[in-house]
User: Fold this.
Amino acid sequence: MINLDDGNLISQAVNQEGVYHAEVRKSTNGPKKVLLDGEECKYVIFADTNKGYLIRHKTTIDGRVFTVGNEPVFEILFGKVEVTFNGLDKQTE
Assistant:
C-alpha cells in the first residue's frame, strides 16, 4: 500500500495557483466541484489543474468509499482537471 504525504499536498495547495486540497478548501472559499474530462468527481481530496491529475477516495460500484482494514484506499486519475468556484471554471491548459 502507498501512503500519501498529505503535508506535502497541503503545502502545494497553499503555495501554488491551480492546486487544491480538501483540508485547505475547508478553510477557504474553495472549489464547489471538481471535474475530470468533463465528468464530476466525488470524494476528491487533491486536484492539480496545472499537471492534470487528482487524488480521490476509491469507491465501490454502489458508491461507498473502499477501505482495506480501517484505511481508505485512494486512486490517482489523470486528464483535463477543472474546478468550479460558484460558476467560474479553472482548468488545465
About this structure: Residues 6-82 form one domain.
